[in-house]
């Protein structure tokens, strides 16, 4: 098994510490925005979003004049996160309580729940209700948007909504926003989706104030968890044969078997569970009261407790109840699941999530990884392993497998972006006189032409832009082939995507956002930002040409993204004997660059996808890699005019050096791409000549 990504954390304890109101760092950040009517809270699993909503809801009920709060969760089991909670014990001014009659996350028919929901809306003594997304949707059909006046609507796992015509939850939110004065708090651990449908209409999304708490902040602030690995294991034939190689029974593990409709599935989910049990060891007994299976580990002889959530008989409810009431590590060892044990499932001792088969949804992968990233005493490392089929070079339908591999790599590249320390971008025009930017901030020098609010909003939504980029074949295909062109990426592909997501931006604004996204992709792919105090003793510092003539910005700030300074003080390489805790560095190649010296030319030296290609090229045989690359060629976009313009000087140079035109049948990928550009240019020239003649 090869890890594509391993991130180490500092165990600062900050994300778990409570302030004098009993709030964690993320919850306090959300509470600062409590007066906003529409709030979007983006924070990873286990960061405490449920309790954050309680704090916000109580403020709106007691201090802001709202009369009711409705909390909607995607499934009944997650409703338990909003049970009665004594918040005053840790310093808050009120406790969270839901009348039992208005807890609708219980077994029973939807018709009765809808009646109760409607009764709640007119009950003058009731203030809080918890229900599923489905109950909310059904009840909405019996109500008017204006019935939600003076109501706080809290939507947990907001990524289940979209602006698509078939998505009733997205339609409901749009209707409530347009037809009432309701407040909305939307919460998600993964705002980007695995498809191309936005969650909200652009005009509605602009109304939301975003509060973001990054994965890195969460994991870096833990007490016990020190590292997280994301890795892949490629198998041939059936995954069941490769399972013993990646299943470590000494680790608390969740195994997600493939969907029965996927190519990885044997189409018999029950037989797959039996095979997994045999791979673990000898089944000793199955408790018919709890549904828990005891298995003697064939490696160590230990008795392991295994939960089967694939079994969909009534006994599965007992298994779920058992898992919900676990209080000690020794009460469970391995969980086998199909569609369950993902979002909202809390088993803090989980160390390893082993997922079999490709997952095209970015959201699903984020949720699965979140099962292993709970902080827990005795757990120093969390691991996500994806066991995936190696494309068969001899298979006529190799394209399907390659497509799936692209999806897996897409997820890995995106996780590489969200798990590392975040890089923020701030326009200089938005800084107050004398303001010092936060550590790790790259300043965009827009003093000559200040950027608009639309640019600021786009920079705040950079995760969405990255998700779109990494799901674009024109970007990922060259990455898998090992020949991405940074110039084409920066000048053609990224601007196209930014322009599509934000059609109202001016061309200069598209360029500003594109350069920031390109910079962020590059920085995160090389390990994120490094504190000067943490640089290796033998770190080689590179000071770009011309940087000596620019100003040294105050400690904790950054020069603009184009590398231009504003003062006169010469800049020198940092003194290793006098490290500045706020000064940040980026790794480019094998050298470190102070972000105060960062510029576009340096950023474009970074291939943000190099790591993925290196892992892939080592993990599969040359024949399979060749089959993948040949398939990917067919997925690449047709030559665009923008790319042809960029390639033209290189075509001229090639012809001058080689004495011939580049060949479309060359064994060299770069030469073939030049040939494609030349063919495009010749065809366009012929079309123009024909038009002139006519």
UniProtKB/TrEMBL annotation:
InterPro entries: P-loop_NTPase (IPR027417). Keywords: ATP-binding, Helicase, Hydrolase, Nucleotide-binding. Residues 550-569 have a biased composition (Low complexity). The keyword Thylakoid does not apply. GO terms for molecular function: helicase activity. Residues 542-582 are annotated as: Disordered. This is ATP-dependent helicase. It comes from Castellaniella ginsengisoli.
